[in-house]
Amino acid sequence: KRNPLPPFATSTLQQESWKRFHFPAKLTMQIAQQLYESGFITYHRTDSLNLSDQSLFSAKKFITANFGKEYWAGFLRGYKAKGRVQEAHEAIRPTYPARAPESVKLDQNQLKLYDLIWRRFIACQMSQAIFDSTTIDIQAKNYTFRATGQVLKFDGFLKVYPMKFEETELPPLKKDEILELIKLKPSQHFTQPPPRYTEATLIKTLEENGIGRPSTYAPILSTIQERNYIEKNEEKRFQPTEIGTVVNGLLVNHFPKIVNIKWTAEMEEDLDKIAEGKRKWVEVLQEFYQPFEENLKQKYQEVSKKDITEKPTEKICPKCGAPLLIRLGKFGKFYACSKFPKCKHTEPLEENILGIKCPKCKKGEIIEKRTRKRKIFYACNQFPKCDFALWDKPTGKKCPKCGSLLIETKRKQIKCSSKECDYIEK
Ligand SMILES: [Zn+2]
Ligand SMILES: [Zn+2]
Ligand SMILES: [Zn+2]
Fold first, then answer.
1. Could you tell me the distance, in angstroms and rounded to a whole number, from the CA of residue 407 to the centre of ligand 2?
2. Any idea which ligand is nearest the CA of 320?
3. CA spacing 20 to 30 A to 236: which of 131, 133, 201, 248?
C-alpha cells in the first residue's frame, strides 16, 4: 500500500516544479505569487503542512462526487511538518478545491503550476494505492536467485497524482515449477559518486541542513547563479565556475566560520527567534558582527587580491610592451596588460582551441566561446577581423560533398555546417 504525499510547502513545491517542468525556483515563486494574488492558491511562502477543516471537507465532497466513495481516504487526513514551523500559515493548496484545473482560465505556466498544486492537494485526501507484491525464489544448485515484483491492484490517489514506482510485473508461476535457463547475464555494480545538484536536490539538501527558509530558497539559488559562482551544465545540473571555486577556496581558508553549515543553520534559528520575539536582534548581531569585523580587518591586510586574481605570464602586451597577466574576472580568466589602468589592452585566454583552422579566413583557429548568457558557441579567434561562428561543435572533418566543416548537433548527429548543403552522416 502506498500513501499519497503530503500537500506542498514552499520547498517541496519548488522541487517538484523543477522535476516536472524544469522551472527554476525563482520562476516557480513568480508564478505562485501571481496565483496567490489572483486568489487561486493559499500563501506560497510557507513551511507548514496545516490544512483548514473547510478545505478538507470540500476535498472530500469533490472526490466522492467525481471519483466515487472508494477514492476518498475515509477520514480527514491531517499533516504535520517536521521541526520548527510557523504554524500560522497553511500548506500551499487551492483556495477552492472544487475549482478543478480544467475549469479555470490561466496562462500556460500558471495552469501547469495550479494543476500541480491542485492535484497534490486533492490526492492527499484520497485513498491509498494498493499493490500486490510477489517474491519468487529460484533454486539453481548452490545459488538462489530472487525476483521481486509488484502489480497495481487499485490506483487510489494515483488517479489524480500519477507517480512512478518500480513496478516489475512477474509471470504467473507455480510452486516447485522447473524453470529453464535461457541466459546468464553477469553484471557488476559500482558505487557511483553522488551526482551534481539540480535545483530540486539542492533545495532539498538546504532544507535538510536547516539552511534557508520558504522566503529564501529561491533567492539563494538565483544569487549564486547571477554572481556566476555556479552554472548549469548540459544535464541542467549545477557545477562550480572558476570564479566560484576561487571564492569558495578563499572563504573556506579565511572565513571558515561563516561558511560552516552548522553555524549558518544556527544563525537561521536565531533569526527565527528574533522574528518570534524570543531573542533581541541587537544582541544576536553583536555576537556575530564584532568577531567578524575583527577577522575581516585582519584579512584585508593579510590576503592580497592580486595573489588570487592575477598570475604573471611571459607574453608581452602588443600595445605598450609590458608583460601580460592572466586575470580572473567575473566571466573567467583572460589576458590583461600589467600596466592597467594606464594600458587597457586585454585579450581572450585561448584555453579552448579545438585545433581546427578557420575555413573562412584560413588564418584563425576555432575556439570555444560563451555568449553573455553563458551559451557555448564556436568562433574564429581572429574576431572581430573574421566573423566565422557556429552554434554546434565542429568535428574537424570536412564535408565530403562541399568541403565545409562537419558539425555535431546536440542530438549527436554529424552533418554539414553549410546551410546550402544537406549532407548528413549516417
Ligand atoms: Zn599594455
Ligand atoms: Zn576566421
Ligand atoms: Zn556540405
1. 16
2. 1
3. 248
- For residues 367 and 382, give the distance between their C-alpha atoms in angstroms, rounded to a whole number: 10
Same-domain check for residues 286 and 138: no
Residues 295 and 313 in one domain: no
Residue-wise pLDDT for 28-82, tens only, equals 999 999 999 999 999 999 999 999 999 999 999 999 999 999 999 999 999 988 7
Domain carrying residue 312: 307-348
Residues with Cβ within 8 Å of 122's Cβ and at least 6 positions away in sequence, in order, are 59, 62, 63, 97, 160, 161
| Cα 123 from chain centroid (whole Å) | 25
Residue 234 domain flag: no
* Count of domains observed in the chain: 4
Q: Are residues 262 and 313 in the same domain?
A: no
- What are residue 324's phi and psi, to 5 degrees? -90, 150
Inside any domain, residue 424: no
- What is the CATH classification number for the domain harbouring 272? 1.10.460.10
| Residue 221 CA to its chain's centroid (Å) | 9
Q: Which three cell numbers stand for residue 160?
A: 489524480
φ and ψ of 355, to 5 deg? 80, 25
Q: Ligand nearest 400 Cα, by number?
A: 3
In a domain, 356, yes or no: no
Q: Do 290 and 405 share a structural domain?
A: no
Same domain, 282 and 318: no
* Residues with pLDDT less than 70, the chain: 84-87, 165-169, 350-351
List the shell of residues around ion ligand 1, using CB closer than 5 Å.
Answer: 317, 319-320, 322, 337, 339, 343, 345
79 is catalytic: no
Q: Residue 339: left if φ>0, alpha if ψ -120 to 50, beta else—which one? A: alpha
Tens digits of residue pLDDT in 144-154 = 888 887 778 89
Q: Establish if 422 belongs to a structural domain.
A: no
CA 127 vs CA 63, 83, 90, 105, 167: distances in Å: 10, 27, 22, 29, 19
Residues 280 and 214 in one domain: no
Q: Are residues 112 and 70 in the same domain?
A: yes
